[in-house]
């Protein structure tokens, strides 16, 4: 270890050697080191040392990973929210992002299936609450920004991504696309659940699939700033050809999202423009691996930033399962 002086452009003072084993003893008479300058030692007969270095404290920090928490039992809960606003186009028209095509998936169906299959591997129970926003609901035509796709607000859970797809297509037949496009209600919906379990045992991810036209930017920013204190992340998947400037702003990679002078405690939003991953025809995904990587790119770090800020360590992983050994009894 070399010691340099800060007084004159990092002049070399001297050196000493030690080891991890010695340092791990902590503060003791063994951890006091003479600093020797070989040049001075060679020139001066009376040279003893250039000072001493005393160890005051020694700490080993273990770097934990996202998977350490998953192995320790932290559960990831995905919620899906789908944009049912009129800006997506009339579902009866082929130009609509919600086009009800009997022969192939529409833009939303493709994005849902592709991204859903990626995230469901991380979801603990594969049961997804699935919500819609921006539609008029039967029978009375009230506008809702937070409705259960399966028609059951008490139990909006769908079984796997297939269940979400079925509920999406069923909703498409019964609701009327309307507006405005408000994100805040679905963000606050997930935030209510996230605020009830802050001990690191659960983490929530909201997947919003949208055409990117947003009406409540100020309220959404406020919701994101509040949610940044909670164990949750938001993935926004943009479908269609629109300019996604507002979504890029919410992503907050370049400028942290703020509301009324308060900045988000941590970055919790990841924006993925789906059109970057499909071919010209719009029917084929170019690379599922690249889509998977980009959709999940920021989740581990966002997850870890929450756990670190709260001082939550992963629980120890349970021992691997070993099947009981059957003793064969032989009868004579």
Automatic annotation (TrEMBL):
<dbReference type="InterPro" id="IPR002035">
    <property type="entry name" value="VWF_A"/>
</dbReference>
<dbReference type="InterPro" id="IPR010734">
    <property type="entry name" value="Copine_C"/>
</dbReference>
<feature type="domain" description="VWFA">
    <location>
        <begin position="77"/>
        <end position="278"/>
    </location>
</feature>
<dbReference type="GO" id="GO:0005886">
    <property type="term" value="C:plasma membrane"/>
</dbReference>
<protein>
    <submittedName>
        <fullName>Copine-8 isoform X2</fullName>
    </submittedName>
</protein>
<dbReference type="InterPro" id="IPR045052">
    <property type="entry name" value="Copine"/>
</dbReference>
<dbReference type="GO" id="GO:0005544">
    <property type="term" value="F:calcium-dependent phospholipid binding"/>
</dbReference>
<dbReference type="InterPro" id="IPR036465">
    <property type="entry name" value="vWFA_dom_sf"/>
</dbReference>
<dbReference type="GO" id="GO:0071277">
    <property type="term" value="P:cellular response to calcium ion"/>
</dbReference>
<dbReference type="Pfam" id="PF07002">
    <property type="entry name" value="Copine"/>
</dbReference>
């Amino acid at each position: 270890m070399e010691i340099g002086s800060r007084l004159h452009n990092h002049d070399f003072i001297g050196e000493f050697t030690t080891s991890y084993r010695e340092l791990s003893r902590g503060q003791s008479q063994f951890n006091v080191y003479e600093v020797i300058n070989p040049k001075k030692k060679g020139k001066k007969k009376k040279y003893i040392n250039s000072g001493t270095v005393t160890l005051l404290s020694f700490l080993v920090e273990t770097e934990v990973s996202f998977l350490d928490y998953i192995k320790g039992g932290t559960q990831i809960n995905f919620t899906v929210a789908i944009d049912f606003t009129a800006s997506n186009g009339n579902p009866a028209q082929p130009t609509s992002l919600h086009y009800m095509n009997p022969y192939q998936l529409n833009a939303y169906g493709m994005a849902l299936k592709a991204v859903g299959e990626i995230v469901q591997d991380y979801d603990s129970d594969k049961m997804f609450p699935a919500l819609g926003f921006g539609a008029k609901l039967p029978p009375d035509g009230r506008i809702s920004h937070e409705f259960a796709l399966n028609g059951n607000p008490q139990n909006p859970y769908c079984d796997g991504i297939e269940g979400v797809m079925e509920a999406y297509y069923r909703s498409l037949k019964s609701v009327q696309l309307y507006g405005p496009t408000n994100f805040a209600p679905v963000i606050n919906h997930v935030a209510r659940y996230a605020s009830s379990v802050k001990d690191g045992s659960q983490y929530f991810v909201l997947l919003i699939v949208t055409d990117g036209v947003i009406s409540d930017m100020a309220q959404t920013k406020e919701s994101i700033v509040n949610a940044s204190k909670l164990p949750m992340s938001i993935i926004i998947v943009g479908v269609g050809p629109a300019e996604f400037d507002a979504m890029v702003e919410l992503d907050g990679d370049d400028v942290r999202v703020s509301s009324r002078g308060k900045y988000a405690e941590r970055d919790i939003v990841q924006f993925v423009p789906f059109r970057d991953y499909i071919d010209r025809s719009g029917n084929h995904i170019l690379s599922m691996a690249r889509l998977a990587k980009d959709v999940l790119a920021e989740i581990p770090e966002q997850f870890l930033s929450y756990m670190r800020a709260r001082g939550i360590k992963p629980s120890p992983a349970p021992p691997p399962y070993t099947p009981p050994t059957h003793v064969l009894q032989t009868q004579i």
